[in-house]
Amino acid sequence: MTRESTNNLIDILIIGEVDKDNFSLFLTKHFFGRKIKYAVITEKEFKERMKYGDKLISRILTQQGNIILKDSLGLKDAASK
Description:
Strand content: 5-15%
Order of helices and strands: EHEHHH
Distance between the termini: 39 Å
Mean pLDDT: 79
Largest sheet: 2 strands, parallel
């Protein structure tokens, strides 16, 4: 089994609340030990960072190949601006 690596800053961005220990166990179980780069930020922090034009968040949102699973914050519109 090969361990793929991406050039993306992160593989998964979670905006909201999540139990990091449980999420890490989930990743280990479902990605078979592959190192997954992820970040968790609150909705409030995300909105503040977008308001001030945070370059890191902008880069993450505009990386090629991103899939947005649930878009209750309108990320697709924010990423295209």
